[in-house]
Design goal:
The protein has two helices and 15 strands. Strand 9 and strand 10 form a beta hairpin.
Length: 234
Amino acid sequence: MKTTNNTIKSLISTSTLTAALTIAASATTIIIEDTFTRTGDVDGSLTDTGQTWNSPSGTQFTDGSTLQTSSYHTSNITGITFATNCTYKLSMDVALNNSSNFWVALGYGTQHINSTGMMIHEQGNAGLFTQNVSGKQSIGLSENNLKNFEITLQTGATLSNSIASWKIDGVTVGSSRAVNASGISGVFVQSSGSGLRGTVDNFKLTHDCVPEPSSTLLLGLGGLSLILRRKRAV
């Protein structure tokens, strides 16, 4: 009987550990992805993953390979529900048109104001901001050619207790900042000036969520129940 009990305990521990590792190793999920292989007005068009682009302040266009940012226009995707205890990553490749003083902004929100994101300036720097343009961090850019920009939003136990961080070409820039993500429901790209300001490609939003401890516990208890049922049947 003692050996049997030890065997059951061992199986229970193994079952619980396996459940925990299986949940913890959950794969990153793509929420939005767009490679802009279509042509024409982006307003009302669908991303590769089926979401609809909106252009409330004037339209932007796709040329079959990129999104053409221009003339103070904004393109956004709304209706996104952000969850607690998740890591969201918004990334895209941006190339600027080095012809005048302008910027391209991108981030979480529906437009540049009251959002969490990044403003990339033609003059060779970027501003990192959380929820409002004021109080932004400024960083220098070594060059203005094509770069990959990534904004990570780590939500906490509540959306109001979240953290934002930034990378350019895979390298962390600036310092992470606290952010209230409870009001965020979309992602956007916006530009200044007239004419073509730059291009955007490989637009992607992903998330990786950590389940609550209760989920692991329930899975472990489920394994215990199955073991005990089998034991009774022997």
